[in-house]
């Protein structure tokens, strides 16, 4: 070891690692990282942007779905154990697994792709926020691939336990595709006594709720949420609906359902799509529901002047048009106020 390596750290310095995130908040210094080479810069410049965005969307959905269905697997596979499922998982644990998975996905992948992780969000961003239409198919395909891969990985991890459960159910003459059966680890299925109209209504309301929270969280003019807590708030919105209505049957995301449902059909049969004609509700309802909730936010709650003042948007006709708008609306309000004083 050289003298330079021995003297690399002063007594007040912090070594490279997670400590880098603290350098703005603590008085101690972090030693400088290795200098970036031109070869590195050239490599990063050559990477196709669209490919990085697609990989980020697939990775984000993978990171969000895998913990959630893993928590479902823990709960389902131990339901008949002597200790009981409550020792290994619960609806509360499942909701938290999805919430933290969503938060982790946003903080790791959103800087690259924007962090949609849902076809419904991608479509609504295209409608309301100017997300390029040509990217929509790529994003949705990537999201579905992420959910599909997460389900495949889970089947690999729990292959032995799922096979044991499958053999027991087949020996008892019970179905593999139903709520509480092995296929329900990957995707949702309604209870036998549930009507599809009731399930549709619940899914629609819960999806509207989550979509509304997402739109509020990504509004740059919202003073009550910072970029640091937005990922957790979005995740907790999903968890809150899972805690409140998970026993009714929910998916709340096409990417979370369709990819794993394809894997369920591969391992447990095509009934994964035909069971009680439920799959269209699970796959599609999140899209119109999020469109409704985002439209509600855009028409009622959006304050574009505040967004412009925050520096996140500009007037399409330039600053002069913005000044004319502010002058005109301020003048009108002033006149109305003076008229009210005069009448009183």
TrEMBL record:
It comes from the Eukaryota. The chain crosses the membrane at residues 54-77, 83-107, 114-131, 137-158, 198-218, 224-246. It is found in: Membrane. One of its GO terms (molecular function) is water channel activity. GO terms for cellular component: plasma membrane. Its main location: membrane. InterPro entries: Aquaporin-like, MIP, MIP/Aquaporin. The keyword Ion transport does not apply. Keywords: Membrane, Transmembrane, Transmembrane helix, Transport. It is a multi-pass membrane protein. Belongs to the MIP/aquaporin (TC 1.A.8) family. This is Aquaporin-like protein. It comes from Hypocrea atroviridis (strain ATCC 20476 / IMI 206040) (Trichoderma atroviride).
